[in-house]
Amino acid sequence: MTSAIETTGLSYRASPNFAIHDLSLTVPAGALYGFLGPNGCGKTTTIRLLLGLLRPDAGSVRLLGEPVPQGLPAALARTGVVPDRPHLHPYLTVAESLAFHAAFYPAWDPGWATRLQRDFLLESDRKLAGLSKGEMAKLMFLLALCQRPDLLILDEPMDGLDPVVRRDVLGAMLDYVSTRTGTVFISSHLVHELERFCDWVGVMDAGRLVVELPMAEFRSGNKRIRLSGADTVEPGRASSSPPPFTLLARERDSGALETWVVRGWEPQMTGWFEQEGIVIREVADLDLEDGFVELLRAFRVGEQAQRSDHA
Amino acid sequence: MSDRAAGWWFLLLLSAAPAEVGAQPAPVWQDSAGRLRTRLEALRDSMLQGDSTVEEIERRGDLILGASPGSRAAAGPALSRLVAARERWFGGASPSPDGFRIVLRSAPSEDRTYTIVVAGLPDTGRAPRSERPVLRSRQLAESLIDLYGEMMYQSAGPGLLKWLDLPLPLSLPDQERRYLAMYAVVTGTGRAQRGCVAGRLGDCAYVLGLRPPETEAPGGAYGSLVRTDFLLAALELGGRDAWHRLTGSAPGPIEAALAAAADLPADSLLARWREGLLALRPAQGPLKSEIAATAMAWTGLLVLAALAGGRSRWR
Amino acid sequence: MLEAMIRIQWKACRHVAIALAVAAGALPIVSVRVGWRGAEANLPRFLTELQLWGFFYPALAAVAAVALAAVIWLSDRRGHHLYALLLPVPRWRYVLLRYLAGLVLLLPIGLALWLGAVAATSGLDLPPGIRVFPHALAAKFALALLLLFGIAFAAASASPRATGIGFRVLGLFLAVHVAVILLRPGTNLLWTVVTALGVWPGPLAPLGGRWMLIDV
User: Which chain B residue lies closest to C54 (C-alpha atoms)?
Assistant: First the structure.
């Protein structure tokens, strides 16, 4: 199995104003996959489709090689999930919750559960209804991790947590990753958090997958280029040769200078600029957040243009 | 008419007595006083009839129904139920030969109390008459049926009343009366009572107060509850003319009168009544085997329905 | 898994189950002891009154079934069944675990009624012709409880879609019932259906009949 998660042409209409369109994403086995997107773009809906909580209108889903929903119990036995909201039984205590959860997972690691419970400062006789948001998040993480899953699916796990709790749960997750060859699929709109440990990134916007590629490629290929002499150049028009990169944004600065934001940059691409008579003044890296913003902006402009053409 | 006027009428009647009164024996004097009393009651009834608020609202054959304004709404349904009971048990007979009148009056206040007057016709003071207060409108029909039933039993002569003692209200639902009678019969402890349950008809006749005992130390007899049930069973078996045959047999033995009512030999009547009563006895305890099987089968189906769903999860 | 389910279900429902068990144990005792003092003087009246108490047995079974089924599924419903859906068991297996654990909750109620019936009838000086049925009555109550719990559990475990379909069917039936009344006054479709359900072999037949702890 090379993919932990695989969707093909996944479509789902959530409401008259929002739908998932033809979503085809692939999460390689062993990857730390950051699923990025602004609020309301469909990340949680996608996760629910992956987990069989929603039935797609079209397309297919495979989770750890098992088709969803036919093979869902087998896939869930090896998948730890931290959903976007608390889902446990509030009338149970921490100890009772652990005991109930453990009964369903043969691979449950009681030793690690005890250690994590101690590290997370979760007292056994505390009722779940009385836990704070941070404590509940830690408990959900504990339950997901101690199953010893092959796949961890985390839906906005850090949302609303204080830095101390965030550090605790991230630490536990990274411990897990370092000791196993499992896959982590984590969704968030907090780009800077995922930048630190994800090695794959998928970006979603308005129900569509914008881009999916290794993190290094995403980071290294996004550049901000300051140049001059580009007044008469329109990349992609018939009068000039097509650029070997993707132009995400273009801004005129003071005087004759312009700033271009490009994706897919490689050093040898300076040749194209020379060919077009453009002088490069500076090439600077974009951090993940800037790259993410520019990517979305370019994607939305493109979508708008497509809609206008069809109209 | 006011009480004062009634008093003057009373004095007037006294003055209408024969001018010459010879020495009378006490029984004769008592009879005169009794007849005077019934005449006064009839007079009061007529005065009540003269009450302008009571209007005749319905006639059904020889039965006249009058009601005051507050009881008119309940009068019609009550009368219908009375007519049905009258047809069923007494073949449409009346407590007096020329028919009878029912007056329903509601109290002046709004407390929903009523008075029922059932009086035989004509209003000469000799016809039977009975009056009863009723506290709630929903009790009107039952009270009317009970009152009518009592008057009918009285009209059958002293023999039946003596045998019945305190008959059950006629309005008591059949099932309740039958079950009460069955319980009384089945739980009887006397030798003759057990003998009746065992099937000895002579014992049944004894415990019903129809014949002398056939054995020594027979024990007690059944009371009015069982006897009422036996009477009504005989009337039901005999059809529409049952009551007529029963009253036509008076003043003979009660057993013969009841057998005539049912149009059956006495032993046959006893046997059929006994069998009908004991048939109510539950054959077994609360749990029947087919019911248990049904419960398990339906439970299994329901559990399967709950488990079914397959891919249709909770969304 | 079953043991784990029994534990959490007992935790959720124990107060309800204990209260119902107390009621079930008290019912036969109260029904008999209240009237027994005057019974010898008027056995028919005592038996008739005992027949009236019979209504409370199926009523208690219905209350117990509905209350337990509702509490069993309360936490899942509040969480939109999210936890259950994320567990590595098919839906039917999760439902079966809930049901079997629910049966365990019914045990103390049925047991309490049986003990109460035995206690109520022990030491009674029974006149001839009178029999006591503590075991048969307890068995009938247990069957009624099982049946009604099945109905309530099936309804409580239904998906929103299935519940919606159920309500629509019920609404359609009531509309037809009203239409029939308007077109043919005196015809009571609802009563006909209820009667059919309550007569053997209908599903509600076990609730009828005699619920007499002491009988002839």
Answer: B286
DSSP structure class, residue A130? G
Residues B136, B205, single domain; the answer is no
Q: Which of residues 52-71 of C touch A (CB under 8 A)?
A: none
Residue B130, token pair as written in the block: 């009975």
Sign of CA dihedral A260, A262, A267, A271: negative
Q: Do B287 and C139 touch (CB under 8 A)?
A: yes
Do residue A69 and residue B315 have CB atoms under 8 angstroms apart?
Answer: no
CATH superfamily of A3-213: P-loop containing nucleotide triphosphate hydrolases (3.40.50.300)
Q: B315 to chain A nearest CA, in Å?
A: 7
| Residues B165 and B143 occupy one common structural domain | no
ipTM for the whole complex: 0.85
Which range of residues forms the domain containing residue B82? 52-155
Indicate yes or no: CB of B315 within 8 angstroms of CB of A53.
yes
Contact of A35 with A46, CB cutoff 8 Å: yes
d(CA A310, CA A306): 6
Kindly list the partner chains of chain C, i.e. chains with 3 or more CB atom pairs below 8 Å: A, B
Task: Work out the minimum CA distance from C176 to partner chain B, whole angstroms.
Answer: 26
Q: Is C144 on the interface with A (CB under 8 A)?
A: no
CB spacing of B308 vs C92 below 8 angstroms: yes
A contacts of B315 (beta carbons < 8 Å)? 53-55
Output the pTM of the full model.
0.76
Chains touching B (at least 3 CB pairs under 8 A) are: A, C
The two beta strands, A26-28 and A3-15, are antiparallel
pLDDT in tens, chain B (315 residues): 555 665 566 566 655 555 555 566 777 777 777 777 666 655 555 555 555 677 888 887 788 888 888 778 878 888 889 989 999 999 988 877 777 788 887 766 555 677 887 777 766 666 777 888 887 777 888 988 998 898 899 888 888 989 998 888 899 999 889 998 998 898 888 899 999 999 999 999 999 999 998 888 888 899 999 999 999 999 999 999 999 999 988 778 999 999 999 999 999 999 999 999 999 988 767 777 888 888 889 999 888 888 885 444 544
State the Cα–Cα distance between residues A55 and A10, nearest whole angstrom: 10
Residues B183 and B280 in one domain: yes
Comparing CB atoms, the residue among C95, C211, C216 nearest residue B186 is C216
Number of domains in chain B: 2
How far apart are alpha carbons B64 and B75 in whole angstroms? 12
pLDDT tens-place string over residues C75-132: 998 888 899 999 999 989 999 999 999 999 999 999 999 999 999 999 888 877 788 9
CA distances from B208 to A202, B211, B267, C177 (A): 97, 8, 12, 50
Domain boundary among B98, B131, B155: B155
Regarding beta strands A257-263 and A223-228, do their DSSP bridges make them parallel or antiparallel, or are they unpaired? antiparallel
Residues of chain B neighbouring C143 (CB-CB closer than 8 A): 287, 291-292, 295-296
Which residues in chain B touch residue C131, judged by CB atoms under 8 angstroms apart? 285
Place of tokens 């709630």: B136
Give the start-to-end residue ranges of the domains of chain A. 3-213, 218-310
Q: Which residues pair with A127 in a beta bridge?
A: A93
